[in-house]
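Hi R.,

Here's the chain you asked about this morning:
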Amino acid sequence: MTATTTDRPSSNFDGAEIRPVTGACGAEVRGVDLATLDDAGWHAMYAAWLEHLVLFFPDQSLDPDQHVAFGRRFGTPEIHPYIPKRDDEHPEIVVIDTDSGGAEFWHTDVTFSPTPPMASILQMMVNPACGGDTLFTNQYRVYETLSAPLQAFLGELTATHTASTFGHPEQQATHPVVRTHPETGRKSLFVNRTFTSHILEMRRTESDALLDYLYTWSEQPAFQCRYRWDEGTIGIWDNRCTQHYAVPDYEGRRRIERVTVIGDAPIGGDTRWQPYVERHGYQRGTLAEVAAMEVDPRANSMSE
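And here is the predicted structure, written out as tokens:
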């Protein structure tokens, strides 16, 4: 499809070719320069982003200042606590430079924060000749295709997310299992294999079984898009309603630079139950206990 001017001022986004990657999510956009996007073009791009969840822009070239400035159009850039930065002048830009893979685990970025990112802007700097694709899932569809009773049950649960993957199990946050998007009003499943520890209102064995089912359900191909990067391509994803996975099927250097934008505290439904730990008079999942657990073997292996 092509961007139109219906009900909005003309912009330098008009005429951009927007081609969906799959029926589930993702679209490739050609014919636009992100470095010179005017205000009207920005709003048109943003609307397309909310619609497709992930946008890919080939043939871009943002210098570090432009990259950070573009991120600031979404909001306040995050200074990631663990991933290496580009340089002292651009702490907002994280750099992941690998030669064989890294984040081969489905995840939503930084859900161990009370305010997980709302957006990430990734620029592919060096890409291997073959492989190194990234997969994304549409977490709206994941939730919407669950049965109505399960939707209702999940809407009343909360889960703890921790930074154990980065070697910091003491850093954690609690979020609704189902969150409502602050802009679209749609509900999405908001748990992931990498950072979600357990559902608070359930016994650990029950939580593990339910989370495993939800992870497996989320990762079906019907909810996915898979994108082959080229050097100079910029990808922007909505971290509030997607997961992603970097495929570790390559040899050779792969370098990305990414700006991530701080989001809001996820909002879900009302919870009718007390945490299981409190109802039964013993402590489970406290900061001290989690900190004493074995550090996740995936620590410091995240690539996107």
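One quick note: The chain has seven helices and 15 strands.

Cheers,
M.
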